[in-house]
Amino acid sequence: MHMGLQLPPLAAIRAFEAVARHLSFTRAAEELGMTQAAVSYQIKLLEERVGAPLFLRKPRQIALTDTGQRMAPKVAEAFALLGEAYTDARGGADGVLCVSTLLTFAANWLAQHLGLFQLAHPSLAVRVDTSNRVVDFAREEVDVAIRSGSGKWPGVETHMLFRADFTPVLSPKLAASIGGVKEPADLLKLPILDPGDIWWKTWFELAGVEADGLAQRPGSSLGAQAYEANAAIAGQGVAIVTRALFKVEIADGRLIQPFDIVGDDGHAYWLVYPAGRRNVPKIRLFREWILAEVKDSLGP
Q: Where is the HTH lysR-type domain (predicted)?
């Protein structure tokens, strides 16, 4: 059966994809190098073909109608597939892969391993953007993200990298300053970095130690595990961190993990990307590499 008869003009579909992504005729027009009137005309053409409005036009904003919402993800996926076919025809993955990631993951895992990925794929430049924000893939130039959380996010594929467990770490020198840390309660004799962190409350409960006064202690929150671990290495206090991110520091003795007690609130680190882009060559290569590399680096 010949499908050509059922397809609307590609220019109209392209205009629809851009307007649906930006929810703005102006921004879509700028991206496509068209006038706003030309974009509006293409959308009107498409609405006539479909036989229903695709956008609700409000005073200062637009929104997709139910019909538009049903159409948008499939159209976006079709454009991703077209882009992939073009890249494949030109001989594999090249260009730029943008990875949005949390600061600690970037500093303590990605920075130590990314060189191997670059060596394997020299024509693919990787740009790392560190941020705590949840990425909006529809409106940002981001290919994949590393997030921590429950893994339940709509519209994205998720692959667990490792659990975001937590346990105290400190410098050997700080431990020696009180004659060694022999039982969990000994930690309360030392400065605690970010004493208001909920992880501390959970960990001391697991250890069977009364630590109610901890949250009232004055203390700074440095905002990222990487910063708190650096402060701990400098002997400024005890940090609570995810072990998988500090294997090197623990292995070389800059930090010690005094107890085997490990908390786990069900969160993990995940690789995520839009569901419709799972087969884009650069995303596929990065996914295969990072899943194997994490498994390798964390051991059994």
A: 8-65
Q: Which residue has the tokens 């990787």?
A: 126
Q: At what angle do helices 66-89 and 10-22 cross, to 10 degrees?
A: 110
- Structure-block tokens of residue 126: 């990787």
Q: Is the pLDDT of residue 42 over 70?
A: yes
Nearest 5°: the CA angle 137, 113, 242 is 80
Mean pLDDT of 43-61: 89
Q: Are 150 and 266 in contact (CB under 8 A)?
A: yes
How far apart CA 146 and CA 206 sit, in angstroms, is 28
Instruction: Determine the Cα–Cα distance for residues 1 and 281; give it in Å rounded to an integer.
Output: 30
Could you tell me the two tokens for 26?
Answer: 């102006």
Confidence (pTM): 0.66
Cβ pair 263, 254 in contact under 8 A = no
Residue 5 backbone zone (phi > 0: left; psi -120 to 50: alpha; other: beta): alpha
**DSSP-assigned beta bridge partners for residue 162:** 269
Task: Give all domains of the chain, ordered by start, each with its CATH number.
Answer: 4-89 (1.10.10.10), 95-159+275-289 (3.40.190.10), 167-251 (3.40.190.10)
Calculate mean pLDDT across residues 192-197: 89
Q: How far apart are CA 28 and CA 25, in angstroms?
A: 5
- Are 233 and 171 in contact by the 8 Å Cβ rule? The answer is yes
